Every structure is written in structure tokens, then in C-alpha cells.
């Protein structure tokens, strides 16, 4: 008989202790959700740190993402023959694989012609807003078109020494009912930002620049200006009234994400899956009849 194959006992490594300073910061900013929780929580590290400045008043602040995608399902690309995860290797079409550390940044000025830009040259054009949010203007919230609102962030004091100045700016914004506009460099580009008081803190929204927004007239120009049938509008209005309610985001779940999790759970258990039949879409021809039927259906649900 052959020798028995020896197996190694793998000891579980003790979890590494987080540095005291990082742990303290996490507690200060509410990072207390368990790692396996699907509930969004504040990250342990800020995505930007610098100064908030209003005229001659300034204070150290930090920006944290106000949203999280940590519970999203993501898939990896695998080789079906080995089940190994595929590595994306930078490749030169003429010479083959290239080390990522050796790559440089280039801007294409014409077909296959580039201007090479070095890290030192990029540092030379850094703006003051790289480390400072300078408040430049105050506007009414209604003046900012919703098309320009982008991503939200939490702006918090970064240390005890700046709390007083931070709260003064926050209270002044709250009492005047104004939105503060400023600029800051995030993700290698300067962004317009809006600062809004919220409870004990300030929320920062990045705003899209004018050259990023497609104007509505460009999208809607070909839609006829004729007003539809008044009776149809009245029925549609009544359907809207029947479906009115409070904004309760917790009542809306990502049903596709839920279905994906169920699919993965069943695949993990080895269950045999049956492919669903494609959904047949009905072509609505009689708009008036469809509206009336919708009104009846909405009325029954509202009871």
C-alpha cells in the first residue's frame, strides 16, 4: 500500500487589531455596523480631507460617502475549464504584456498620437481646491435645476479644533435657508459642490458642470406640442391621486438584486433551475380603455 497522504492542519489566524487611531475615528463617525450587514454604513476612512473656508473663517473637515454599494452583487469572470478567476493584464498590441507600474498617462491629440503627461507635471497644475472647499456664493435651493445634482457626501469636522467654526457655518446656512456653492478637486478633477445643513451636520452634493448636462430642449424638441384628450388627462390625474403617498424608500427594494441572491442560494445548494418563459408584452391599442381599467384597478388597491 502507498503511504497515506498527509494533511496539514490550518490554524485560524487571530484577527489583526486595528490601529487605535483608526478605531477611534471609526467610532467617532458612526462606523459600527457588523461586516456582514447589508445596512449601509459610514466608511472607516474619508474619501477627502482638507479645509472648509468661508471668507477668513476655516476649519479642518473630511468628506465621507453618503451612499454605499457594498451590498450589491458583483460577478467575476472565470475560465470555465479551470474555474480560475481571469486576470486583466495590460497588453501592448505589438510587444505583449506590460507591467502596470511601467505605464504612463497620455492624451490622444489625433489618431494614435499622444501627449505624455508625467506625475510631476500633473502636480504642478493642482489647484488650491485640491485641499480646500472655498465657499463662493449662496443661492436658493429652488434655483438649482435637479439635472445638476449629483452624488451626496457627509462633511464632518476633522478634529475637535474646528468644531466651533463648523457649527457657525452650519447654523448660518440653516438660518438663512441658503445653499452654499463652492469648488473642490475630487477624483482628479475640480467639482462644483453644494453645501446644505442637515441636522447637526452638513451634506455636500457634487453638482454637474454646465458642459456635462444635455439640455431638455435637445431631448424633447421632437415631441408634438398638441395637448392630449382632456378626459384622458382627468382619468390619469385621478389615478395619480389614488396612488399618492409619503416618500418611504425602505418600502422599495431592488427586486432584481433579491432574485439574484435567490438564484445564487439555489445554485449553491445544487437545485435544478427551470428557465422561465419569456414575458409576452401586450400592445395597448385603446388608450382610453386602458386608462379606465387602470383607474378601476387602482381604486380596488386603495381600499
CATH topology of one domain: Ku70, Chain: A, Domain 2
Task: Label the structural class.
Answer: alpha+beta
Query: Low-confidence stretches at least 5 residues in length (pLDDT < 50)?
Result: 1-37
| Percentage beta strand | 15-25%
Please give the largest β-sheet.
Answer: 7 strands, mixed, barrel
Which CATH class of one domain is shown?
A: Mainly Beta
The helix/strand order is HEEEEEEHEEHEEEHHHH
Computed over alpha carbons, the radius of gyration is 28 Å
Mean pLDDT: 83
Report the principal-axis shape: extended
Distance between the termini: 78 Å
Q: Count up the helices.
A: 7
Number of strands: 11
Helix content: 25-40%
Question: Can you describe what's shown?
Answer:
This protein has 303 residues and is α+β, with helices and mostly antiparallel strands. Among the domains are: 39-70 and 125-212, Ku70, Chain: A, Domain 2, CATH 2.40.290.10; 227-242 and 284-303, no CATH class. It is 25% helix and 24% strand. The protein has helices spanning 20-28, 119-124, 163-176, 216-220, 230-242, 255-268, 287-302, and strands spanning 48-54, 57-65, 91-92, 96-97, 105-110, 113-117, 132-139, 149-157, 179-186, 189-198, 201-207. A hairpin with a 2-residue loop joins β10 and β11. The longest helix is centred in the last third of the chain and has 16 residues, at 287-302. It starts with 19 loop residues before the first helix and ends with a helix. Residues 1-37 have low confidence and may be disordered.
Amino acid at each position: 500500500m502507498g503511504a497515506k497522504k498527509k494533511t496539514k492542519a490550518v490554524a485560524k489566524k487571530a484577527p489583526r487589531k486595528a490601529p487605535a487611531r483608526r478605531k477611534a475615528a471609526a467610532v467617532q463617525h458612526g462606523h459600527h455596523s457588523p461586516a456582514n450587514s447589508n445596512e449601509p454604513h459610514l466608511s472607516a476612512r474619508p474619501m477627502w480631507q482638507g479645509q472648509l473656508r468661508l471668507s477668513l473663517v476655516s476649519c479642518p473637515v473630511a468628506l465621507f460617502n453618503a451612499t454605499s454599494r457594498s451590498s450589491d452583487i458583483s460577478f467575476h469572470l472565470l475560465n470555465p475549464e479551470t474555474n480560475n478567476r481571469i486576470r486583466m493584464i495590460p497588453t501592448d498590441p505589438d510587444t505583449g504584456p506590460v507591467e502596470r507600474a511601467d505605464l504612463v498617462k497620455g492624451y490622444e491629440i489625433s489618431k494614435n498620437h499622444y501627449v505624455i503627461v508625467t506625475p510631476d507635471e500633473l502636480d504642478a497644475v493642482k489647484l488650491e481646491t485640491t485641499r480646500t472647499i472655498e465657499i463662493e456664493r449662496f443661492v436658493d435651493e429652488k434655483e438649482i435645476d435637479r439635472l445638476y445634482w449629483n452624488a451626496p457626501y457627509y462633511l464632518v469636522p476633522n478634529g475637535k479644533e474646528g468644531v466651533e467654526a463648523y457649527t457657525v457655518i452650519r447654523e448660518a446656512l440653516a438660518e438663512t435657508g441658503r445653499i452654499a456653492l463652492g469648488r473642490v478637486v475630487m477624483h482628479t478633477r475640480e467639482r462644483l459642490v453644494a453645501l446644505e445643513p442637515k441636522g447637526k451636520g452638513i451634506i455636500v452634493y457634487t453638482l454637474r458642470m454646465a458642459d456635462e448636462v444635455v439640455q431638455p430642449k435637445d431631448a424633447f424638441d421632437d415631441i408634438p406640442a398638441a395637448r392630449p384628450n382632456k378626459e384622458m388627462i382627468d382619468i390619469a390625474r385621478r389615478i395619480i391621486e389614488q396612488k399618492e403617498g409619503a416618500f418611504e424608500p425602505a418600502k422599495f427594494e431592488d427586486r432584481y438584486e433579491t432574485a439574484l441572491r435567490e438564484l445564487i442560494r439555489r445554485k449553491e445548494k445544487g437545485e435544478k433551475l427551470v428557465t422561465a418563459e419569456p414575458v409576452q408584452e401586450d400592445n395597448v391599442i385603446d388608450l382610453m380603455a386602458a386608462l379606465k381599467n387602470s383607474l378601476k384597478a387602482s381604486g380596488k388597491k386603495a381600499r
